[in-house]
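Thanks for the sequence, V.! I ran BGH3 protein right away. Repeating your input here for the record:
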Amino acid sequence: IVTVNCARLLKADHHATNGVVHVIDKVIATTTNSIQQIIETEESLETLRAAVAASDLTSLLESEGQYTLLAPTNEAFEKIPRETLNRILGDPEALRDMLNHHILKSAMCAEAIIAGLTMETLEGTTLDVGCSGEELTLNGKPIIANKDVLATNGVVHFVNELLMPDSAKTLFELAQESEASKSMELFRQAALSSHLT
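Predicted structure:
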C-alpha cells in the first residue's frame, strides 16, 4: 500500500504529454510542524511534553528524519498508578526507554498498516501494529484515538493507553504479569516486596 502524506495512492502512472498523474484519495495539506512542535501545541499531550523534556528527546523529535510517534495522551498517563508514574518520571533511563518504545523507526500512515505488521521501536523492541475492521490496533488492542497527524519529520498517532516496555518496569511489576505472580503475593505478605521495587 503506497501513501503520499498519508493519502492513499489509488491509481499510479497515468502518462500525459507533459508529465505523469497519480490519483490519491484526499487533498494534501501543507505540513509545517515537526513532531516536537505538535507535542508542544497540543493540549491533550501536556504530560507527554513534560516527559519528553525530562528525557532529553526534544532534539530527536525536531530533527530531520521519518518517525512515527505513538503519542500517549494525558488520559493514557492518568490510567497508570500515580506511584508508578512518579517512579518513571524520576528515573531518566526508564523514562527514555518508555518513550522510545512509543517511537517507530519509520513513518507509518494508517492507510499503509495491514493486520499482523510488526514494527521496531527506537528502544529496539517490537510492536504489533494492525487493524480490526476500521480500527487500528497496537498489540491487538484498539487504543489509537486519533491517527495521521502529519509532521515534517514523520507522523503522529494519539494513543489512549501507555505502552510500557519491560525495561521500564520494576522486578515486582514484571513478576506480577508473569507465572510468578503467586510468588509475588508471598513476597508482599512477608513485607519483602520493597526489595523488588
